[in-house]
Amino acid sequence: MVVTVLVLLAGAGRVAAQADTLAADALARDSATPPDTARPQPSFQFSREAGLGLRAMWEESAAAKQERVACLGATVRHDTVFVARILALVPDGADSMGIGSDASIERCGPPNWSGTVHTHVAEYDNGLPSATFSAQDRGVMRRWYQRWQSDGVFCVAYSARDAHCEADGVVGGMRSRSIVK
User: What pLDDT, in 10s, does the model give residues 21-80?
Assistant: First the structure.
């Protein structure tokens, strides 16, 4: 099950995010069935170190007008995904719309890493970057899952303060299955 959240990356300290959708729940339910809004929603919290690292990654990405990617070190406890650290990767095959994914898939897996974060800096018709995962992003996430056979945590940063994150394996605030299959 995938949990989707919008994260506000403030400068210092831990920042929680409120879930905006439960994508997998929507697929599992009949479209006529109303969403279960009473279920507790997981949140994301970023340590000061991770928040500052993401902000620096965004600023570098925006200045270069190229996407950047980093590994995420996260743990899931009860209803919260704690992102403690990131490891920025050297751009490889980056252009204005993408960054090479092979290195991030190989480098950002268990047991040291839980997934990836990357930036979206290309502006669209509204003058803003995309705030969600693209079809290409979903393909990279699928390749990460195939490689590691593990729950994952993925984010896309689309401003110095905002990111969209998803965690697999967290349902209704509780882990839905073991960490590694």
Answer: 222 232 233 334 344 455 455 589 999 999 999 999 999 999 999 999 999 999 988 778
Write out 111-168 in H/E/C secondary structure. CCCCEEEEECCCCCCCCCCCCCCCHHHHHHHHHHHHHHCECCEEEEECCCCEEEEEEE
DSSP count for the chain of H helices, then E strands:
4, 11
Q: What is the mean pLDDT of the chain?
A: 74
Candidates 3.40.140.10, 3.40.30.10, 3.40.50.720, 3.30.70.2740; CATH matching 46-170: 3.40.140.10
Structure tokens at 123: 């502006």
User: Where do the structural domains in the chain lie, given as residue ranges?
Assistant: 46-170
- Choose among 170, 162, 160: nearest CA to 131: 162
DSSP E strands, 10-151:
15-16, 18-21, 43-46, 69-77, 80-88, 115-119
Q: Tell whether omega for the bond before 111 is within 30 degrees of 0, i.e. cis.
A: yes
| Residue 85 CA neighbour count, 13 Å, CB half | 5
